[in-house]
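COURSE: Structural Biology Practicum
ASSIGNMENT: Worksheet 4, Part C
STUDENT ID: 0417
INSTRUCTIONS: Below are two proteins. For each, the amino acid sequence is given first, followed by its structure token string. Answer the questions at the end about the second protein only.

PROTEIN I
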Amino acid sequence: METVRAAERELMARLPEGALMQRAAAGLAVACGELLGKVYGSRVVLLVGSGDNGGDALYAGARLARRGAGVAAVLFSPQRAHQGGLAALRAAGGRISDDAPRDIGRADLVVDGIVGIGGRGGLRPKAAQLARAAWESAPVVAVDLPSGVDADSGEVHGDAVRADATVTFGAYKPGLLIDPARDRAGALRLVDIGLTLPQEAELEALQHEDVAELLPRPAPESDKYRRGVVGVVAGSARYPGAAVLAVAGALRGGAGAVRYVGPAADAVLARFPETLVHPGPPDKAGRVQAWVIGPGIGDEADALEDVLAADVPVLVDADGLRFLTPERVRERRAETLLTPHAGEAAALLGRGREEVEAARLASVRELAARYGATVLLKGSTTLVAEADGPVRVNPTGTGWLATAGSGDVLSGVTGSLLAAGLPARDAGSVGAYLHGLAARRAAGPDGAPILASEVAAHLGAAWRDVTH
């Protein structure tokens, strides 16, 4: 967050005193008004700490009070509260709360301005108690980010505010996009306050237009080889379905052709007769532009060395990850993309799953650096990282993807994009984006349980969503 702080300092040096805070407060007040629907006669409670977020909340509260809202401010450090904001609130008819639980219990909206982006650690007991009361009583809007979360990493150490919406200023903070903090941020709204930021961010989230630009499209003279042939080593006697799902993802992910190697050829051909099958080993299966290996292979790891020895990009998922070493991956000349979930990432890093889930950004960066590979860390917020450069976070994920086989489909989609010539970072990012869109389509607007096969079936529609 030092980048944002530096941009704020540079802008404040050029603006009249207090102008930047007024810009933030104006955007915050508009968002609060929209959430309330009717400002006049509504009851708003401000949770005010000693930093600039508290000042933003106070000035926004003053704007709401001038529009007829009853605004009460709960001051956690009365002597250190923003004096200009306090004066503005009082002048507009707002008041200082003398009974915080009562005011929160009656509120139509609570504004969290307890801690800013410089906060570290969880909330103190009093703040935590009132934050819980607010969540149970009324919609909560966080100022810049929910208090108690780490702005740089998305980690949550102790108690933190859970917001229905977060109004953030100048730039999206990593903590707003990465779980576990992402789950506490609610709907996000960005207010432009005029910051000048570096071209390269620490974190990127692709949007439709970005994905549309990256998606490979066949030219009039294309044939299946020019579009990309992806090899899939997946499935076993125990898990034939993994092969079917990985092939489904690859075919619907845009591959010109899919070569399947493994013991589940009959099951694959029964569903997808266009698949090219081979009993193996992979290096005898024919020409491919990329390999996918791992889903459902169990302990059958003999093919892994064949695949790693190929001078084409390789995606390693699921069971294939168990047999990797950093040294073997690092000596490859072509790109390697690893796609673990949190449990598999924990095994690769030699730590507990809960540690990975609590520090997803640090974990994916460490894995990428250790293996010299691109790493796609699956989960509630999917992250794609290389050893250097910005980490990408996927904005289309949904909890409905927590279903058996969805990772196999993702591997197939992403492998097809590798075969089409996308770099591993782009293939992982675009594959996760399409996968998430397909899952949302399968679940429907109100959300419903879905199957991995349904996700695969909606991939074509996800392409159309992006390209039209």
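PROTEIN II
(use this one for the questions)
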Amino acid sequence: MPRPNPAQLAYGSATVILSALAMLLVSQARSGAGIAVVASASLALGLLVAVRVSGRRPSGAPRPVTGAVPAQRGAETADGGRRLAETSSRR
């Protein structure tokens, strides 16, 4: 299982703390069961936020081409034109 990155830890922790405080203030829970429900809900929300942070990608970022080798796609020349991929004469 991959380790969480710093953004996931930061957003997830902040979500758990802030949502727990907000829910405790709004619900005014005083019993142990009420506090347990608020704590589990805030943990679940923090986990959801942490998982969603990892999947984000800027909208302008290009998606990688799957299954394509850079030599097969052609290469850029110095003047910006495209040239054919070079083939190897070795066998």
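ANSWER KEY EXCERPT:
Q1: The mean pLDDT is 79.
Q2: The longest strand covers residues 75-76.
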